[in-house]
Amino acid sequence: MKEIKIVLLLLLCPFFLFAQQTVSIIPEPVQLQLGQGAFTIDGNTTVRLENARKELKPAAAFLASHIQRISGYELRRKRKKSNAISFSIENINGIGNEGYRLSVSPSGIRIAANTKAGIVYGIQSLLQTLPQVRTNAALRVPSMEITDYPRFAWRGMHLDVSRHFFSPAAVREYIDLLASYKMNKFHWHLVDDQGWRIEIKKYPKLTEVGAWRVDQTDKVWGERPQAQPGEVPTYGGYYTQKQIKDIIRYAAERNVTVVPEIEMPGHVASAIAAYPFLSCEQKPQLPLTGGDYTNMSSNYCPGNEQVYTFLQDVLDEVIALFPSEYIHIGGDEVDKTSWKNCASCQALMQREGLKNEEELQSYFIRRIEKYIVSKGRKMIGWDEILEGGLAPQATVMSWRGESGGIAAAKMNHDVIMTPGNPVYFDHYQAGPAGEPLAIGGFNTLKRVYDYEPVPQELTPAEAKYVLGAQANVWTEYITTLNQLEYMVLPRVLALAEVVWSPKEKKDWMDFNERLRYHFKAFGQKGLNYSLGNFTVDIKPVSQNGNLTVALTTEAVNGDIYYTLNGAVPTPQSIKYEGPVRIDSTVTLKAVTVVNGHVMGVQPAEQSFVVHKAIGRDVIYTYPVSKYYQAEGPNTLTDGVRGTTAVGKHWHGINGSDLIATIDLGEEKPVSSITLGTLQNYRDWIFMPQWVKFEVSTDGQTFKEVGTVNNQVSVDEKNAVIRDFTAAFPEQRAKFIRVTAKNLGTNPKGHPGEGKAAWLFADEIIVK
Ligand code: ACM
Ligand code: ZN
Known about the structure:
Number of strands: 36
Mean pLDDT: 93
Strand order of the largest sheet: 10-11-16-17-18-19-20-21
Bound molecules: acetamide, zinc ion
CATH topology of the largest domain: TIM Barrel
Low-confidence stretches: 1-20
Largest sheet: 8 strands, parallel, barrel
Helix content: 10-25%
Number of helices: 18
Shape: globular
Radius of gyration: 29 Å
Structural class: alpha/beta
């Protein structure tokens, strides 16, 4: 935050009531120098287009409509120089296509840039110095000089309109939000299993049939029963080509390019419901209602030439509509079982010498790329398109972490970084207690802010292939515009600073200071936003037989207050000064307090169970996956129980058994041992087949004290937590050994059938 104390001005200037002026622009400009005094926009202020009048008219109208809304003043376009806001397109070195210079002095405002995009960004910065609602106060813009331009060319936000349909008005609001923070790509995910959302004139059933499903919005995504014959599909919608053109124009006026995603070859159950010939099975199906894919076809058949004809026809209409240089073709998460069982697919593989179904996918993607390139466009695909060999000119969107992006950059392909952690904005940003139900994950505001799109693994030459970064917003769990706002605000502001501002100018404390203006602006605009970054993070540390808890908050200037008796914490509760020792079974609740006010939605809360193995080292025979380390090596003895909502307290092992040995430090009487486990079908996590418990006094000879068999069906699709407990006559034991038998591979009928299953465990409770 830039601020000047206008001590001198107190003597010189009639506006001495404004003891200080602040500017809170997000993303932080490259250079910002505050001057003295301010320019006041009033009823006589005009807009002056120094040149390029025709080209700059929409920008002038954009500024005028905002000023009119907040003040009632009509900024007329005039040639006069005084009391004017001037725009000029000129040749400025070093600021590129999207940069701008904004000069404010008491006599006027001037925005200069190389293109109209830069002028629009100058206006966006200017607007961030003004109120966002109707005001009678003077519209004072502090004197300043800004020179500004982006770090990355790709500053993207994605929106899934298939799982939830958002109206054209909602889409325009979303584009406005992106544009305010200088994001320049709107990745419009128009096609997925649960709804086809773009009118294609040659194939009207795509929207007549594929855009509508039986309405089960009242049920959680994974728990929606499939449609039954005779049920009327009433949920859905689509965008006509006319509406799409309007949205593209609206976005272009704000320097936002709309990049369509026409998903293929998987995630297209909606297209198949409309035209069953597109799938390998070619059998009719009803539109999907949610996450139950049983007996559904969701892939195109790459062995069928008619599929390519269909897709080229669709792409012809898409290319005619969208001026975007890039067309996104999806390519993610293709379950290739249907291709394995399809005579046409297998015959094609024979003819083309394709070794496996991954190569079949590559064959398909290459053909599509060739077509797109022949039309003068470029193709983007999700990182799965690397798997059977990358199409020659493809741009890769790296979502399963950064490894796909790193591999592609090393092959001299352009990449866009959009790793699930930390830039999936459908993931939790706080809680999860008190938060709206989300798909999982945990991407806090600070984690987004700290994201660096250029991985260390890349040389400077390879780093040039990183075009930028993007956040993705999948909407299985986001069913209203209000909730959409909540998921992206304020995280999109953090991302904007990641992709626009110079790396060395990033400053978390300063960002938080500037955020205050924007929170106020969200309130003024009636936008729903999250205060989630005030949620206290509760981190248990167990060592040498002791359990302590460290509490942190991302909020700058925030203090933490907590309770251990179940009460809701207030500023009169215990103030956190350092790690808290836990030596009985308790529930800890904590809040962030800023300036005497409790922040956030709901206190952070964690229960601890204190038992005889707390803080003891756990030795694993087979290692825990590097992806599921939770709080580190002692996660199973930290007294913290995992929940179904997020993976954060679980240790995960892929394919192998869990064999954990604990040294209790000394011989103790023991009469019960428990292992907590999780099943989450959709994440390939299954209950162990059985759990064996053993005790020992010397660590050499173990004696079994019980084996407990699994009771949960492998077909149970809802997440379940189960404790396996052996209770037995009291024994003396120094060592405990727990063996949990992995299911081995995902069961028959599961999307990952035959691949290694995960086993997840949280606590080993010894009593
Ligand atoms: C994705 O999240 N499936 C690209
Ligand atoms: Zn096939």
